[in-house]
UniProtKB/TrEMBL annotation:
Residues 713-811 are annotated as: Disordered. Residues 716-734 have a biased composition (Polar residues). Residues 765-779 have a biased composition (Low complexity). It is a multi-pass membrane protein. This is ABC transporter domain-containing protein. GO terms for molecular function: ABC-type transporter activity; ATP binding; ATP hydrolysis activity; flavin adenine dinucleotide binding; oxidoreductase activity, acting on the CH-CH group of donors. Belongs to the acyl-CoA dehydrogenase family. Belongs to the ABC transporter superfamily. ABCG family. Eye pigment precursor importer (TC 3.A.1.204) subfamily. Its main location: membrane. Residues 23-268 form the ABC transporter domain.
C-alpha cells in the first residue's frame, strides 16, 4: 500500500453524493444591521483541488469559510445572500456539509496526555464505528505515514504540565488535520491551518493536504494569512478578498499575469502572496476614503476581467433545487451507537485521567495533604463535651474545603469541552460524532472510580486521626458522604465550565458558588437563625448542606460525650450519668430531623439535575434521516452555450459526449492524445471521435472530475443497441459504443424477432455504454413493460427481459429464471448470462454474480491500469473481499463456517458450492488483469487449502479467522530454481532438531505468487529421501527469523507480487506440519486440481475479455470504408475465438459439476487428467484470443494504456498462465497418462 492508499468507502456517504465533483458559490454576501461584511463573492473548486482564501485581517476570510461550512449562521440580525452548491446542483446545506465534509478549527483541539497514535485511533473509533479494528489500525498507520508523523506516533501530544516534551506546533496541526480527515470526507474546510507555524512547518502541512486532495478527490478550502511563496505555490487556486470584496479568483500560477495586466505588477524578488496582500491591505492608509476607493477600483477590475466573465458563465444556471425538494435515497445512520460512544469516550477518559496531572493526580495529592492537615490539626479529639465544637468544625472543614478544591478540575474539564466542540455538537457546530450525553456519562463513570479512590484514602488518613466515631459503619458512612460531596462538586464544575468555557470565568464563578453554599449551609449561621431568604432559596439546593448534616448525624446521633466531671452544657437524659447525648447536641443546633436516606436521595437528585442542566444547554447529535440525503440536480446547457467554450486560455474548453457536458480546460494539457485533437472538437458534440478512440473505462475514470452538466437532459444519440431499465434500475446495456445514428426500428424489430421477445424493439434505445453496477438482485423479477422499458424491482440490478404482458414462471428454490445480464455482446459472457437455460446455476448464483460485478466495476476496473503500472495494489481491496465473505468461499471446499463468522450477503453457507467459486473468479477476471486477480486469489487460493484440509487443528484455530476475513495473507511455495513441474525432485530441506520439536528449513523458492504480501507460507520441503515419498508440507510464518523475500521482475502479472523467497535456518515448530511427514506429495496433488481450476477459469475469461474488447472495437473502427466487423476475415477471427471459448467453458462447467458430486479423493484420481487437459486447452485458447485480439486492435494493443490496454496487458500475462500450475506439454501428457490409468481401473484393456 502506498502512503496515500486509504479505503475511502469507509466514510459513510449516501449513494447519491458518493463522488463529490465540485463546490461552487455565487454572489455570496453577508451583512449585519450596521456593516456589510462580504459582497458578491463567487468561486468554483473542482474535485482534487485545494483553494486558499487570502486576505488581510478583517477581509472576511473566516466569515466566508463559516458561511460555506454552515457554521453559526442562524443569527436573526444577520443577512446572507447568494447560492452555494456541490456537484453543479445540490444545494449546500448544513446536512450536506455534515454528510460529506468536515471543518478544522484554527486552534488545535487535542488531548495532551494521549499519544499521536492514540489520538488518531480514538478519532477513528468515533468516526468509523463499523470499520473493523484491523482496518482502523491500518488507516491510522497510513495517516501517520502520509502526514510524516511515524516517528512521533508514540509521543504524547503534550500539556503544560507534561513530564516530557510533547510534539511541535506544526506536528500538532498535522495531527488535528489527520483527525478530521480520518473518515475521508470529500469536503474539508480549514480555518488558517498554518497559523502560528513557521514557514517550513506551514509548507509541510499544506503539502500533505495537497497530496490528499489529489489522491482521494477531496475538495479543500483554506483561509490563510501571509503564506510563504513555497507554501502558496502548493495551492491550486486562490480567492483574494479585501474588506469583504472579491479582488481575484483563479489559478495560483496565473496570479502574476493578472496583476500585471491590471497595472499592479509583482516587483522583482517579491513573493506573489506578499504582493497580493500588500496591494489589498489598506488598513494602515492614513486616508480611509482613499483606501476604500482603492479597494473598489481593484474589485471593479476583477468584475470586468475575462476571468470573472468565465467564472460567471460557469456559475450562471437555474438556481439549485432546495435540498428539501430533491428526491431522497435510503437513510443510513452514520453515528455509532450511544453505548459505543460511551465505551470509547470512557476508555479515552481513563487514559487521560491516568496520565494527565490536571485530571486527578494533582487533586489526589491536594486531598491527601488536606487529610493530613485535618488529621494533625484536629488530632485525636476525645469524646467529651469540650470536643463537640471541634468535631463539628472538622466535619465542616473536611466537606466544605474538599468541595471547594474541586476547582482544580476546571482545566481538565475545559480540555474535554474543547474536544467535544470539535468532535461532538459543541458551540459553532462540530462533527456530531457524539452528544453531551455520552460525554457526561463517560466522564461520570471515570469520576466515580477516581473520586471513590480519593475519598477512601482521605477517609483512611483523616477519620481515625481526628477521632470520629470509631466504628466501621461510621467510617464507611463518612466515606459515602465525602464521595457524594466531591461528586456533586465535580458536577458543579462541569456545569459552570460548560456555561462559561473560560478558565478565569469558570474558576471565579465556581469559587463564588461554593462560597455561597458554605455561607448558607448551616455551620457559619445556625439553620434556626439563617435569614429567611437564604433559608428558602439556595439552602435547599446547597449540596454542602446535605453533606454537612449527614456527617453530623453520622458522628453524633449514636454517640455520647463525657461532661468531664463538670456540669453538662446541655440538659439531656444522660446528664445524671455525666454524659451528653449526641442526639441532644443535634437537636439543640437544628440538625435533629436529618433523614439520612432522604438526604442521600436529595444529593443524587442535585447531581442528576446538574448533569441534566449541562446536557440541556448544548446541542444534541443531529440524526441523519432520509431528509438529509440528496440526489444530484446537474446543470443543463444549450448547445450554443457549449459552443462558446472553445478556448482553454479564455472561455474554457468544453465538449459534449452522449449529451453530457465536460469541462476539459484544465485537462487539455494533460490529455495523453495531445491538446490539438481536443481543440479541434472544442465546443462540439464529440461523441463520435470520443468513442472512436476510447472505451467506457476512460469515461468512468474521468467523469466525476470533468463532468459539469448535460445538454437538455436528452438521451444519447451516439451509442445504439443498449437495453435500458426503468427509473428504478440502471442500464443493463453497455452496448458497443459505436458512433453514428441509433439503431432503426427495423433493426430493432429484427433483434426482437431473433430473440423472440415481444416488445424488445421498443427497448432497444440509444444510451451511453454503461454496465450496471447495482446491488445483488432478487432473481427473476424483470419484465418488459408495454412501453418497451425493462422494468425491475428496486432490488434487481440485472433482470431477465420477459415477454410483454406475460407472467413470470414460478420457480423452486433450486431453480433460477432465465436472465439477461451484461452487455449482450455475442459470446462476451457465458451463455447463462444471455438467456440460455442451464442446469448448474441457481438463484443464489445469479445474486452472487451481480454482487461481484458491482464490486469489480466500482472498486477494481477503473484502477487496474494504475495498479499494473505501479506493480501493486491497495491491500484494502483484498480486505474488502474478506469482509464480504468471498475469500472464505474460494478454497475449493464447503464454506468453512467453523473458522469464520463472516458471511456472504448473497449466498448462505449451506448453499455454497464450487459454482459459487467459479462465479467469483470469473467475474473478478473481467477486470482484464492477471496480476490483479492473482493478487486477490492467487497465493491465497492455493496456499490456504492444504492448511484448511490437513493442518493442525490448534494452528487452524489460531490463524484461519484472520486469513478468511482478509486480515492476513497466504502463499504456496513449491517451485524452486531447479524444480518447476518436476515437484518430486525439489531440494528445499527441513531437518528435525535433536529434541524433535522443530524443523530447520533451508532452501529457496522462486516465482511465488503473493510472497511479498503474505503472512503465511505453505512450503514444500524435503524431510526424507529422494523422490515424492520424501516430501512434506510445512506452514512457515513470515515473522519467523530467516525468512526473506524480494520481488521478481516478470513479463506479466505485474500487480501480483511475484517473489523470490529464501529460507535460512528457519526454525519451524513441528505443530506446523501440514498432513503427515513425508506424505506431502499427496497433499500437493490434491491441491493441484483446485489450483488448475482457478487458472482455467481465469484464462478462459481473459480469452473472453480479449474477444469482447476486440469485438467492441471492431464495431467502430473503419477500414476501407467499412467497419472492421463487416469484413469476413475479421468475423472469421471472432468465430474462431468464440467457438473455442464456448467449448472450453462448457467443459469447465462439466468438470466443476463432477467436482461438486465427487469426494476429494475420487476427484483427485478421476479428474486429475481431465483438469490437466482443460488447463492446457484454456491457456492455448487464451493465447489464441490474445493474439487475434491484438491483430484486430493493431497498434493500439502494442502500447500500454488506451483502448487496447486490456489486450496489451493480457498478452503479457499469457505465459504466466501457460507455465505455472504445470506447463502445457506436461499437462497434456498428464491428461493422457491419467486417462489411461482411470480407464484401466474401470476395466479397459489395452
Amino acid at each position: 500500500m502506498t502512503s496515500l492508499d486509504i479505503d475511502i468507502e469507509a466514510k459513510p456517504l449516501t449513494t447519491t453524493i458518493h463522488a463529490l465533483s465540485s463546490l461552487s458559490w455565487h454572489n455570496i454576501s453577508f451583512s449585519t444591521p450596521t456593516k456589510q461584511i462580504l459582497t458578491s463573492i463567487s468561486a468554483h473548486v473542482p474535485r482534487g483541488e485545494i483553494l486558499a482564501i487570502l486576505g488581510s485581517s478583517g477581509s472576511g476570510k473566516t466569515t466566508l469559510l463559516n458561511i460555506l461550512a454552515q457554521r453559526n449562521q442562524n443569527g436573526g440580525k444577520t443577512t446572507i445572500g447568494g447560492d452555494m452548491w456541490v456537484n453543479g446542483g445540490v444545494r449546500l446545506t448544513g446536512e450536506v456539509v455534515r454528510e460529506v465534509g468536515t471543518y478544522v478549527e484554527q486552534e488545535d483541539a487535542l488531548l495532551g496526555s494521549l499519544t499521536v497514535r492514540e489520538t488518531l485511533e480514538f478519532a477513528a473509533r468515533l468516526a468509523l464505528p463499523d470499520l473493523s479494528r484491523a482496518l482502523r489500525a491500518e488507516r491510522v498507520t497510513t495517516l501517520l505515514r502520509a502526514f510524516g508523523l511515524t516517528e512521533q506516533a508514540d509521543t504524547q501530544i503534550g500539556t503544560a504540565l507534561a513530564r516530557r516534551k510533547g510534539i511541535s506546533g506544526g506536528q500538532k496541526r498535522r495531527v488535528s488535520v489527520a483527525c478530521q480527515i480520518i473518515s475521508m470526507p470529500r469536503l474539508v474546510f480549514l480555518d488558517e491551518p498554518t497559523s502560528g507555524l513557521d514557514s517550513a512547518a506551514s509548507r509541510e502541512v499544506i503539502s500533505h493536504l495537497q497530496s490528499f486532495a489529489r489522491a482521494h478527490g477531496m475538495i479543500i478550502v483554506c483561509s490563510i494569512h501571509q503564506p510563504s511563496s513555497a507554501t502558496f505555490g502548493l495551492f491550486d487556486k486562490t480567492l483574494l478578498l479585501s474588506r469583504g470584496k472579491q479582488i481575484y479568483f483563479g489559478r495560483v500560477g496565473e496570479v502574476e499575469e493578472y496583476f500585471h495586466r491590471i497595472g499592479k505588477p509583482v516587483g522583482k524578488g517579491v513573493g506573489i502572496a506578499d504582493h497580493m496582500l500588500d496591494v489589498t491591505n489598506v488598513d494602515f492608509w492614513g486616508d480611509e476614503e482613499e483606501g476604500n476607493r482603492h479597494v473598489e477600483e481593484m474589485a471593479n477590475a476583477w468584475s470586468s476581467s475575462p476571468e470573472a466573465s468565465t467564472l460567471e458563465h460557469l456559475l450562471t444556471a437555474p438556481s439549485p433545487a432546495s435540498a428539501s425538494h430533491l428526491p431522497r435515497s435510503s437513510s443510513r445512520n452514520h453515528h455509532s451507537t450511544f453505548w459505543h460512544q460511551i465505551l470509547t469516550l470512557t476508555h479515552r477518559t481513563l487514559l487521560k485521567s491516568y496520565r494527565d496531572p490536571l485530571a486527578y493526580t494533582i487533586r489526589f495529592f491536594m486531598y491527601l495533604a488536606l487529610a493530613l492537615l485535618m488529621g494533625t490539626t484536629f488530632l485525636r479529639l476525645p469524646a467529651t463535651q469540650s470536643s463537640l465544637q471541634s468535631l463539628t468544625n472538622a466535619i465542616f472543614f473536611g466537606g466544605a474545603f474538599m468541595s471547594f478544591m474541586q476547582v482544580a478540575a476546571i482545566p481538565s474539564v475545559l480540555e474535554d469541552l474543547v474536544m467535544w466542540g470539535r468532535e461532538g455538537t459543541g458551540r459553532g457546530g462540530g462533527e456530531g460524532l457524539y452528544g453531551p450525553g455520552a460525554l457526561l456519562v463517560s466522564g461520570g463513570v471515570v469520576g466515580v472510580g477516581f473520586l471513590g479512590g480519593i475519598v477512601v484514602v482521605v477517609g483512611v488518613v483523616s477519620y481515625w486521626m481526628i477521632g470520629f466515631q470509631p466504628t466501621a459503619v461510621g467510617f464507611w458512612k463518612y466515606v459515602m458522604w465525602l464521595f457524594l460531596d466531591l461528586y456533586a462538586a465535580e458536577s458543579l464544575v462541569v456545569l459552570i465550565s460548560a456555561i462559561i468555557p473560560i478558565f478565569v470565568g469558570a474558576l471565579t464563578i465556581t469559587a463564588f458558588v461554593n462560597g455561597l453554599f458554605m455561607a448558607v449551609g448551616g455551620f457559619l449561621v445556625s439553620p434556626n437563625q439563617l435569614n429567611v431568604f437564604w433559608r428558602y432559596t439556595f439552602r435547599y439546593i446547597d449540596y454542602q448542606r446535605y453533606v454537612f448534616e449527614g456527617m453530623m448525624k453520622n458522628e453524633f446521633a449514636n454517640r455520647r460525650y463525657s461532661c468531664e466531671g463538670q456540669r453538662c452544657i446541655y440538659d439531656n437524659p444522660l446528664a445524671g450519668e455525666g454524659y451528653i447525648s449526641g442526639q441532644t447536641f443535634l437537636d439543640q443546633n437544628g440538625y435533629g430531623n436529618v433523614n439520612e436516606g432522604k438526604w442521600v436521595a436529595v444529593l443524587l437528585g442535585i447531581i442528576l439535575g446538574m448533569k441534566l442542566l449541562t446536557w440541556s444547554i448544548h446541542p444534541q447529535p443531529r440524526a441523519y434521516t432520509p431528509n438529509n440525503h440528496f440526489t444530484m440536480a446537474p446543470k443543463t446547457f444549450t448547445k450554443d452555450e457549449v459552443a462558446s467554450h472553445k478556448d482553454p486560455s479564455g472561455s474554457g474548453l468544453w465538449i459534449i459526449v452522449d449529451n453530457e457536458v465536460y469541462d476539459l480546460t484544465k485537462f487539455a494539457d494533460e490529455h495523453p492524445g495531445g491538446k490539438k485533437i481536443l481543440l479541434r472538437n472544442a465546443g462540439t458534440d464529440a461523441s463520435k471521435p470520443f468513442w472512436k478512440y476510447h472505451n467506457q473505462a476512460i469515461l468512468n475514470k474521468y467523469k466525476a472530475k470533468l463532468h459539469i452538466g448535460s445538454v437538455g437532459g436528452g438521451a444519447s444519440s451516439a451509442t445504439p443497441n443498449t437495453i435500458v431499465q426503468s427509473k428504478t434500475g440502471t442500464s443493463t446495456g453497455g452496448a458497443n459504443p459505436a458512433p453514428g445514428k441509433a439503431a432503426s426500428s427495423k433493426d430493432s424489430a429484427e433483434v426482437a424477432k431473433i430473440a423472440k421477445v415481444p416488445g424488445a424493439a421498443q427497448s432497444v434505445t440509444s444510451s451511453s455504454p454503461k454496465t450496471s453496477s447495482a446491488k445483488a438482485p432478487a432473481p427473476g423479477k424483470g419484465t418488459l413493460s408495454g412501453s418497451g422499458e425493462v422494468g425491475v424491482t428496486p432490488a434487481t440490478s440485472y433482470a431477465a427481459p420477459m415477454p410483454s404482458g406475460s407472467k413470470s414462471t414460478p420457480v423452486q428454490d433450486d431453480e433460477a429464471e432465465i436472465q439477461y445480464f451484461g452487455d449482450m455482446n455475442p459470446y462476451a459472457d457465458p451463455s447463462w448470462y444471455q438467456g440460455w437455460h442451464s442446469p448448474y446455476y441457481k438463484p443464489h448464483h445469479h445474486a452472487l454474480r451481480a454482487e461481484i460485478r458491482e464490486f469489480v466495476e466500482t472498486e477494481i476496473e477503473p484502477f487496474v491500469h494504475e495498479w499494473d503500472e505501479a506493480k501493486g495494489m491497495p491491500n484494502t481491496i483484498y480486505e474488502k473481499m474478506g469482509q464480504r465473505g468471498w475469500l472464505a468461499g474460494c478454497l475449493g471446499v464447503k464454506y468453512p463456517t467453523k473458522y469464520t463468522d463472516v458471511r456472504c450477503k448473497s449466498v448462505p453457507p449451506e448453499k455454497w458450492d464450487h459454482f459459487c467459486e467459479l462465479v467469483i473468479t470469473d467475474e473478478l477476471s473481467r477486470c482484464g488483469s492477471g496480476g490483479v486477480v492473482w493478487n486477490l486469489l492467487g497465493g491465497y487460493g492455493i496456499g490456504c487449502p492444504p492448511v484448511l484440509k490437513f493442518g493442525n487443528e490448534e494452528v487452524k484455530k489460531r490463524i484461519l479467522p484472520d486469513v478468511l476475513s482478509g486480515k492476513k495473507r497466504f502463499c504456496l511455495c513449491i517451485t524452486e530454481p531447479d524444480a518447476g513441474s518436476d515437484v518430486a525432485n525439489l531440494v528445499t530441506s527441513a531437518k528435525k532438531t535433536a529434541d524433535g520439536k522443530h524443523y530447520i528449513v533451508n532452501g529457496e523458492k522462486k516465482w511465488i505468487t503473493n510472497g511479498l504480501l503474505s503472512d503465511y507460507f505453505t512450503v514444500a520441503v524435503r524431510t526424507g529421501g529422494p523422490g515424492m515419498n520424501g516430501i512434506s508440507l510445512l506452514l512457515i510464518e513470515k515473522t519467523m527469523p530467516g525468512v526473506t523475500t524480494r520481488q521478481m521482475k516478470c513479463q506479466g502479472v505485474w500487480a501480483s507480487g511475484t517473489t523470490y523467497v529464501e529460507f535460512d535456518d528457519v526454525k519451524v515448530p513441528v505443530e506446523n506440519l501440514i498432513g503427515k511427514e513425508n506424505k506431502g506429495f499427496k497433499v500437493i496433488m490434491t491441491n493441484f486440481n483446485h489450483e488448475r481450476i482457478g487458472i482455467i477459469i481465469q484464462a478462459n475469461r481473459f480469452a473472453r475479455v480479449c474477444y469482447e474488447e476486440a469485438f467492441k472495437y471492431a464495431q467502430k473502427r473503419k477500414t476501407f470504408g467499412k467497419k472492421l466487423i463487416e469484413h469476413p476475415v475479421i468475423r472469421d477471427k471472432f468465430a474462431n475465438m468464440a467457438r473455442q471459448i464456448e467449448a472450453t467453458h462448457a467443459n469447465l462447467e462439466l468438470v466443476i459439476y463432477q467436482m461438486e458430486k465427487m469426494g476429494d479423493v475420487e476427484a483427485m484420481l478421476r479428474l486429475g487428467g481431465a483438469v490437466a487437459g482443460l488447463k492446457a486447452q484454456s491457456t492455448k485458447v487464451f493465447e489464441l484470443c490474445a493474439r487475434e485480439a491484438s491483430q484486430v486492435f493493431g497498434g493500439l494493443s502494442y502500447s500500454r494504456g488506451g483502448q487496447g490496454d486490456k489486450v496489451e496487458r493480457l498478452y503479457r500475462d499469457v505465459r504466466a498462465y501457460a507455465i505455472p500450475g504445470g506447463s502445457e506439454e506436461i499437462m497434456q501428457d498428464l491428461m493422457m497418462r491419467q486417462g489411461m490409468k482411470v480407464a484401466q481401473a474401470l476395466g479397459a484393456k489395452f
